[in-house]
Amino acid sequence: MKRLRWYDYITVNIFWLGLNIRNTAVQNFIMPYMVNLFVPEAIKNSALGGMRAAGLVMAMLVQPAAGLLSDRSTSRFGRRRPYILAGVLGDLLFLVAIALSWNYVSLLVAIVLIQFTSNISHGPLQGLIPDLVPEDQRGRASAVKSVMELLPLILVGLTIAKLIGVGQLDWAIFATGACLFAVLLITLIFVKEEPLTVKPEVSFWPQMVRVLGMLAGILIGGIAGLLGAGVVGALAGWITSLVSGQPIALQFSRQPLALYPTTLPGAVLIGVGGCTAMLVAVVVGVWAGTLATLGRDARRNASFTWWIVDRLMFLAAATSIQGSVLYFVMYAFQLTGEAASDLTGKLTSIIGVFILVTALAGGWLADRLGRRLLSGLGGLVAAVGGFLLLSTIWVPSLSMVYVAGTIIGLATGLFMTANWALGTDLVPAAEAGRYLGVSNLAGAGAGIVGAGIGGLLADFLNHYRPGLGYFAIFASYAVLFVFSAISVLGIHEPKK
Hints:
Number of helices: 18
Strand order of the largest sheet: 1-2
Largest sheet: 2 strands, antiparallel
Order of helices and strands: HHHHHHHHHEEHHHHHHHHH
Low-confidence stretches: none
Shape: globular
Helix content: over 70%
Number of domains: 2
CATH architecture of the largest domain: Up-down Bundle
Structural class: mainly alpha
Mean pLDDT: 85
Strand content: under 5%
Number of strands: 2
């Protein structure tokens, strides 16, 4: 394995920049903007959440499958680059499909398909550092990778979001595709892979069975979350009914939403039930998923399972806030979709700067303060930012939005660095790939839990009182941050 020169650190990781520009642009700006154009105001949060969940389920299936197939590839062009090329060509095709979408269904199909092709690239891409970087240089290579993953938050906010802000959606989509194609060319030209001469004995189906186990865990968690939501929400609604003297009243409607509250106890029932559904879905889903994929090892290494619980709760809150902020600022400041995209872009850029700074400092702090402690601290600090957002719903204050976003950004940078380092400490060295592969349950499951449940919750309660739905989901995400901090108590760091 050849030693890397200074510019090799960039070329090996440059595709992460394009991939995350595409992800940030499509998921945080293009998709919310277009859903707002295609669906009624009453169901836009639910429609966006459902679209995110569908795409993430596709990602959970395709990403590991493509990675495993690339492990076995004996192509003369290398193991990873042919898949990266195929994925980008598909991405460019389906970016055009997104631009040509004429209704919600056509957009949904395009989004699911672009998740398919994007993850054909994403899975094999993760093998470039292990394939090409000597072990004593992987720390520096991983640091550059982290920068490439975080820079898009800043770059997209300053460029693509501004194009949408002035009504140039087509140019925003073109710029996304152009960035992706540019980094593809750099990767194809400058990354040199040695083709395999003998196909390795890497089992495909046992790995995919584990992926299906993770999906089953999320499904079980979702069912348990609904049951828990019904019990806890009904109890909260009953107590509120006694205090307020109002009955619990929910009304069916011929509107796209079939059921919504008409009294305060009914609103409390749905709000508390939705938050409970998120919490229960995370805990039960993670334990079911890890038991299905790791078997008895999940019980023997309970700290690892609690690490995934911690990670999923934090990511569910952080990514869902990021995904719902465009609709929130549209409501709070009475903005058009274009103006809200521009404002969200500025906010995302500022948050991205703080995430980048604290992520780079997080490794140094984690080594001195402890990775478990810093993970818990990240959850608590993020919760402060989440609760500050609540005040801006009833008394809109752009300054407070920026303050809250900055706090969440600082906490996210600290958490992401310290928490991943903590996870690598908890897995057996000989089975790191097997264990850390289960961490996809946290990455993809976060969006399914947070956006899927949160979107429904927001629309139901906004029916009762405008703005109440956003209050409920931000409160729920702040509670998730708090419980992510509490969950680290179940993690016991190995003695060194």
